[in-house]
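Module 6 notes. Inverse folding takes a fixed backbone as the condition and produces residue identities as the prediction. Think of it as a translation problem where the source language is geometry and the target language is the twenty amino acids. Below is one complete input and output pair. Work through it position by position during the lab.
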């Protein structure tokens, strides 16, 4: 049992450790100009529009990467108070840099563990392109939603996107790329299904909405009505 837990932790850490400063310097180009539009069939403008619609003035972003989508929101003047949470300090620093002169609060933490944020609630929590990195099925890694929900203000919205490996959604080139990422431990999405995510979010929130673009699943959840 203890060996399983050690291996699980190693897999979680490996999936986040890949984001070195060098990789982050080419992240936007590779992910949003090549991988997302060409392999996953979802262009950058769809992610930007989704963020614009769901981000709000007191926002927590989780699994921040290079901060590309938050930077877009800052340029549109949609952000006021922002907190960043990530297991990899390189990502926290790169995103802080990308958002300057906006001041941010940074938390270095694993979404699968109780989170180190007390006495603060957010009107929106975003987790974009994060869940497909995290080991376990949605029913296992969905524990993150329990921790994140505790940080949502009443009526707040949790939203995000994740890449699905599911046959029928991911085509041959997408599965080819994801096979490599899964083998390298960068992705962990072979067990992920839209149905499981619907169940996990539905157990926690009154309202859940999902939509697909290519093999990217977008989700929103709230106890308030979703407009
Ligand atoms: C693929 S990047 C996504 C970056 C960004 N949100 C985007 O939309 O492009 C995944 C991010 O999640 C972080 N991450 C991976 N596993 C994590 C975990 N268990 N807890 C917190 N952050 C994690 C990584 O360090 C990285 O910043």
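Target side of the pair, the amino acids:
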């Amino acid at each position: 049992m203890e060996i399983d837990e050690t291996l699980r932790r190693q897999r979680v850490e490996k999936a986040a450790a890949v984001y070195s400063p060098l990789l982050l310097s080419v992240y936007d180009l590779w992910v949003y100009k090549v991988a997302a539009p060409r392999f996953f069939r979802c262009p950058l403008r769809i992610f930007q529009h989704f963020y614009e619609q769901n981000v709000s003035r007191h926002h927590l972003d989780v699994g921040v990467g290079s901060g590309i989508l938050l930077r877009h929101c800052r340029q549109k003047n949609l952000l006021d108070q922002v907190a960043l949470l990530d297991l990899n300090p390189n990502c926290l620093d790169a995103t802080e840099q990308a958002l300057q002169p906006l001041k941010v609060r940074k938390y270095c933490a694993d979404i699968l563990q109780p989170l180190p944020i007390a006495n603060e609630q957010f009107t929106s929590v975003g987790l974009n392109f994060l869940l497909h990195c995290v080991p376990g099925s949605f029913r296992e890694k969905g524990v993150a939603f329990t921790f994140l929900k505790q940080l949502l203000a009443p009526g707040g919205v949790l939203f995000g996107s994740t890449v699905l490996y599911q046959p029928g959604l991911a085509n041959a080139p997408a599965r080819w790329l994801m096979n490599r990422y899964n083998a390298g431990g960068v992705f962990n999405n072979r067990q992920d299904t839209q149905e499981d995510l619907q169940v996990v979010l539905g157990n926690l929130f009154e309202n859940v909405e999902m939509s697909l673009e290519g093999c990217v699943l977008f989700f929103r959840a709230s106890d308030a009505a979703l407009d």
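Reference fact for the lab report: The chain has one domain: 2-222.
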